[in-house]
Amino acid sequence: MSGVIIESRQRVSPLQAKWIKIVICVLVGAVIWNIPIPNGYTAQNWHLFAIFFSTAFGFMLQPVTLGVVTLISLSAASVLGVLDVKGVLVGYSADVVWLIVAAFLFSRGLIKTGLGNRIAYALLQRFGSSPMRLGYTLAISDVIISFCVPSATARCGGIMFPIVRSISEVSGSKPGSTAKKLGAYLVQTVVQVDSIAACLTLTGQAGNLLIVAFASKIAGIEISWSIWAMAALMPGLISLVGLPWFIHKICPPEAKYTPETREVAHQSLQAMGKMSLHEKILCVILTLTVLGWATSGMTKISATVIALSGVCLMLLSEVIRWKDVTEESGAWDTLVWLGGMYGLADNLSKSGFFKVFADWVQVALAGMPAFPVLVILISIYVFSAYFFAGGIPHMLVMYPAFITVGIAVGAPPMLVCLLLAFSSSLYQAITHYSSGPAAIFFAGGYIGQREWWKLGFIVTLTNVLIWSIIGAVWWKVLGLW
């Protein structure tokens, strides 16, 4: 009886846990706020940093949803006199935030019309005769779709995961005792390849657009769609060619042949019928949009304007309807929390916070070689992902500070920005909660947490080495640094 009482006392209800986390976040901000202001900083930018850091803690602990955390932080910044109304809302006028909203709407169109499924099934029908061929086929499918769907979560949740689950189940591989027959291999292959697909183009995932904005504002480095694509080409190809084979070695499927897959793909395509008018229209719109992004450096037309124009074309052609736009809750949820957090970071940058921070680091690390410091920075940047639930919160908190430090110690600015930019995608599957795609595939039940973390660490480390060594040499050949 006493044991039951003790056990019940030790339990913490969800409500109590929520308020404990809220108190921790507030205390973290209060401690920083009341620390004597270091030399070089002003009361305004130091207090803003306290709010920013407290918000970052809220993103990590997530006592409430990210949108609620952000609204509380923005309200606090205004009530405490740190920012005026214009400063509080500045993030919601940022073009990068609206580009990400447009990315969600493109994803809606691709999923609604079924075009993404058609692309994947067509490839599977032709190449899906063995687990490794399936792995490569799904990898190619994901890469192709990534050019059209600039949201990794939508790409995996709406297209890739349903296909992987369908193929696995038809092959007799289900969560539990038969997971390793095929499903575990396909899950790890697709989720790890999606991290590379996110690297290949500037619009491969929403976070890339944030990174480019920070690189421009903080480091003065302009990375266009074409520069990003060329920089990713060589290391990306090596990772893509090697990953399905490498995962086949460390997570081998029990099945050797999968003839059922081609039949399933064939039946699925037959059930879909001929391409609909809306699919054909969407193909044209996506082609024009990708061409617009690729040539934005020459045309000087903003990538956001191009994306929103594509959304307008989808609405006018009724590929999607206005109801689809209003019901795309992920887009508006992201707008609220991302716009707010981006605004806080932007205000910090404008206040000179990162410049003072860079000067401090430069003095503290004076005499240390730049490249060893850069190696340490990348290692911390990548493996700190264990403490974040999601990729974009990690980028928002870590990327501005880390490019500031890297450049301050004397490393080439473009090299610093690119290494950390691509690393921001490479850790996306290191844990089962490090990104939206990871959470989606883990929830399928084909791989346990221990196995996921082991594979995630090995694959992430391998990819980081490829992109840091071969990538750096390739960028040197291109004359980027």
Structural features:
mainly alpha; 2 domains; 481 residues; globular
Number of strands: 0
| Weakly predicted, low-confidence segments | 1-9
Q: What proportion of the residues is helical, as a percent range?
A: over 70%
| Structural domain count | 2
Calculate the terminal CA-CA distance, rounded to whole Å. 70 Å
Short description:
With 481 residues, the protein is mostly helical. It has two domains: 2-83, no CATH class; 93-477, no CATH class. The chain has helices at 2-10, 14-34, 43-61, 66-79, 85-89, 95-113, 115-127, 131-146, 152-170, 183-200, 206-219, 225-250, 259-272, 277-294, 296-299, 303-316, 322-327, 329-350, 353-364, 370-383, 391-408, 413-426, 436-443, 449-477.
Could you please describe the fold and organization of this structure?
The structure is a single chain. This protein is mostly helical and 481 residues long. It folds into two domains: 2-83, no CATH class; 93-477, no CATH class. The chain has helices spanning 2-10, 14-34, 43-61, 66-79, 85-89, 95-113, 115-127, 131-146, 152-170, 183-200, 206-219, 225-250, 259-272, 277-294, 296-299, 303-316, 322-327, 329-350, 353-364, 370-383, 391-408, 413-426, 436-443, 449-477. The model is unreliable at 1-9 (pLDDT under 50).
